[in-house]
Amino acid sequence: MLRTPHRVLVALVATVLTVSGCSLPVFSPGGGDVSDNAATRGPGSVNLAWRNCADIPQDLFGQKAPRMRYECAEITVPKDWNNPGNGATFSLALMRVRSGQQKNRIGSLLINPGGPGGSGIDTAAYLSFGPQVQGLPSEVLERFDLVGFDPRGVSRSSPVKCISDKDLDASYGSEPDPATQAEFDELVALNKRIGDACGAKYGAELPLFSTEQAARDIDAIRAALGDEKLTYLGYSYGTLLGATYAQLFPQNIRAMVLDGAVDPQQGMVAGSESQAKGFERAFDNFSAWCARTPAQCPIGPDARGALTELLDKARATPLTGSDGREATAGWIFYSAVAALYTELYWPQLGKALGALRDGEPDEMFELADTYTSRTDRGTYDNQADALLAVNCADSDETVAPEQIRALQLEWEKTYPLFGAPLAMGMLGCAFWPGAKDPYPTGPATGAPTIVVVGTVGDPATPYEQTAVLANMLGTGQVLTWEGEGHTAYPNTQCITRAVDGYLIDLTAPERDLRCPAG
């Protein structure tokens, strides 16, 4: 399955700040900051060793948000919550962001950006910039400590890393729809090599990166922060993580917003096909936009035909980028995937594909790299490693290569651009070693109202999954955005008003509220 590309958020905020020419003042810790005393920590808190970490937003975005204080700490949790007494532990990294204008503090707002593999610390830094870059509204930032955490195995939290940069380049650049059995077998061998390498390095620890283990970590974080009840905002895979927490600790929830709902009850095959359908629909919407706005979309009016032609040309004679990479069909595919996560990237996709048609692939590579998290040096972070470790530990469904090959050939007819690649994506878990630790799929009995947000044009977590998750939890209430892209809050005034009222005042949105795209 395709993950939430956290680097898209980082690229977006950096672009917006650069284009808008914002000059954010340096925040002085003495300028109205809230003191870290027992009243602000809350009951039952432990003495976390918070330290200044304003370097994180500075490194990511070239500046930090005004009047915000960034502090980081770590907590230690059992590696295996089923056997906490064995002494083995993971270290989890946290970041707390406090506004210098904080007043009437409610508590902590814990953030998860999805993935799996996305950094909650990086996302908290992004959201701290406020509404000027579609970060969190000022009203929320002034009432909560914004807390991001990197889940176990992710980024700064005991990261799992076992896939070489060479193999990641080979994976992303590989043929997304292998025509011959030999091409298919080559990808089988690549995925087997990756699975063998991860098994050799981590062995019996691989199941410990599961979603249920991470959900139990969240309750340890809640307790360490001193919050009697959890207030949580989870995006994409973060909805699955939040839903798992809600089933395990329903009485510990104050408020929970799950945006970009994942259906926990669907298996790997159903989930992959759902994404194939969602991305096809999103590309149709992109194509319609191209036809309406030809000045902004050089490949219009037939964007689907243009992309198909570019993929075919790349298979025959791929261009070479300035970094020496061949612009294969795989890299072109991921450039399209990256852009469909947000409507703000549609003009860049049209421009990049237009440049590719004119013999210049670098803009296409730049867009693809926002999804893959490939750096200019040709290195990768551990998002792909964490994605496999979590997804493969979570799923007890085994899909053999022969079945994947059959689904590839079937789905390429139904979903011409995205069906085959989504089928091929299941090869990663086909050779993943280690035991399984599937998450629960039932009601959150005793939990308060949980707001489940869905976007009609969402490619990665298609809208149809929203009501399924809400109904499974039993206390879920659907909030709909009739817009495009992956996740909704805080994209429009209607969505923002509904979610803010719930987070701050615990006032649930109007039942079955649908917010217009504009």
Q: Provide the gyration radius in Å.
A: 22 Å
* Envelope shape: globular
Largest sheet: 10 strands, mixed
Structural class: alpha/beta
Total E-strand runs: 10
Strand content: 5-15%
Mean pLDDT: 91
Can you tell me the CATH topology?
Answer: Rossmann fold
Give me the number of helical elements: 20
First and last CA, distance:
30 Å
CATH class: Alpha Beta
* Count of spatially separate domains: 1
Unreliable sequence segments: 10-45
Helix fraction bin: 40-55%
Compressed to H and E, one letter per element, the order equals HHEHEEEHHEHHHEHEHHHHHHHHHEHEHE
Known CATH architecture: 3-Layer(aba) Sandwich
Q: Going by CATH, what is the homologous superfamily?
A: Alpha/Beta hydrolase fold, catalytic domain
Strand line-up across the major sheet: 1-2-3-5-4-6-7-8-9-10
